[in-house]
Amino acid sequence: MSDVFEITEKDLLGRIGKLYTPHGIVETPTVMPVINPNLRLIEPRELKRYGAQMLITNSYIIYRTERLREAALSKGLHEMLDFDGPIMTDSGSFQLSVYGSVEVDNPGIVSFERDIGTDIGVPLDIPTPPDVPYARAREELEITLAREAEAKAYKGDMLLAGPVQGSTHLDLREEAARRTYEIGFDIYPLGAVVPLMETYRYKDMVDVIVRSKMGLGPDAVVHLFGAGHPMMLALAVALGCDLFDSAAYALYAKDGRYLTVDGTYHIGQLTHLPCSCPVCMAHTAKEIAGMDDATRTRLLAEHNLYVTFAEIRLIKQSILDGDLMELVERRCRSHPRMLSGLKQMMNYSAYIEKFDRVTKSSFFYLGPESARRPEVIHYNRLLKNLQVSGKVLITTRRDVDSRGFDRVFHVKAPFGVFPEELSESYPIGQSEVIPELDCEAREAALQNIADFISSHPGTQFTFAYDQPWECQSIERLAAIAGLIRLG
């Protein structure tokens, strides 16, 4: 059980938690704005008014810049940056991946992070990029694990992160997570995922996150390194990520780009601003586009922060309300590659179901992916425990003559079979399903009906259905139950 993290609410793999740091309690999920100590687009002390609770900066940049190094060692990191909340520092791993070498070793950078008063430090891991040969990923993983174990001797009182590497080799990701968790850290960042997000490989990102989660304990605080676009936050939270860091608010602003939960726009291409943050209420798109570079960049960075933290608040409320899945489905339909991430997430529904809430406020059917949601799997797994015998009728209509049957079940897509006694309980009674269901929902229901029948051998089943239910899976039912085609 983690002594720095307390989970207070959960939905899917997502959770609201309290992260205890030397400079205060942080409510997760949250985003840490990235601060370049040499180029402060927005002063750290101002970040709280946008919603930031903590920030992240680069200890290696501070270390190799003499004036910054001396200031951090003499004043402490918090006074140097003029920020009184928790601060996490990266170790220079990004610079190592870009330039091939850095001017400090692992014990040196961890000791430096400790000495300047970092709340959460990071060892000098090796961020192995996607798609590298397996042998390279294995070799670099072993170096990372050795450095992580070494770093614990130098951490002092600061919290220490243990990055999870392994490239896109999923067995290595799961192994890395398990071995890192066994060493024991306070935070578990998932490294080298930025290239996946930059190329819209959300399907692969889902694989990396979930397989890493499978290797970690359920109390592990998961940080998705380099993830800060509001479009993908709901999906990442639903998969169990607690912390994010965003340089996107500043980098996109410098390029004139305006973030939304549905994607990114260039300010010069906008006529109307689809946001009600203070920046958008005080200016028009044309005004912002026509400003000098510094002013335009500042205003866009402010907007980008506002929209990012507004999404975080909505995600938290969705967790509290138990409808995070609905938010994820809406967000993932904003981009074809995001939709591929949603579809891949559904392939892990059986795993997610183990940690999901048992009851929620509602179940909304939003499309084919809804048929594979964890709630559907959970419901049918429990339904198999129901004892039935004799002659049983399963029917899609309530006006069917049920004389001669010992038990009657009704059908609701995408769940399948339900007894009348459960008609008012979750999820059957709280599911909102459109009357004109797509074929995928009925196919899912028929598959669940077939599984229910197969789990009760010796019982004589009859399935009475009307024309819309003549889907492909009806053939499977014909082999295990009597069929009645209703007129």
Automatic annotation (TrEMBL):
Keywords: Glycosyltransferase, Metal-binding, Transferase, tRNA processing, Zinc. Its cofactor is Zn(2+). Zn(2+) binds at residues 275, 277, 280. It comes from the Archaea. Binds 1 zinc ion per subunit. The active site is at residue 90. One of its GO terms (cellular component) is cytoplasm. The keyword Zinc applies. It catalyses: guanosine(15) in tRNA + 7-cyano-7-carbaguanine = 7-cyano-7-carbaguanosine(15) in tRNA + guanine. GO terms for molecular function: pentosyltransferase activity; zinc ion binding. Transmembrane segments: none annotated. It is an enzyme of class 2 (transferase). Gene3D superfamilies: Queuine tRNA-ribosyltransferase-like. It holds the Pfam family TGT. Residues 14-336 form the tRNA-guanine(15) transglycosylase-like domain. Pathway: tRNA modification; archaeosine-tRNA biosynthesis. Substrate binds at residues 125, 192. One of its GO terms (biological process) is tRNA wobble guanine modification. Its EC number is 2.4.2.48. Exchanges the guanine residue with 7-cyano-7-deazaguanine (preQ0) at position 15 in the dihydrouridine loop (D-loop) of archaeal tRNAs. Belongs to the archaeosine tRNA-ribosyltransferase family. This is tRNA-guanine(15) transglycosylase. It comes from Methanocella arvoryzae (strain DSM 22066 / NBRC 105507 / MRE50). The gene is tgt-2.
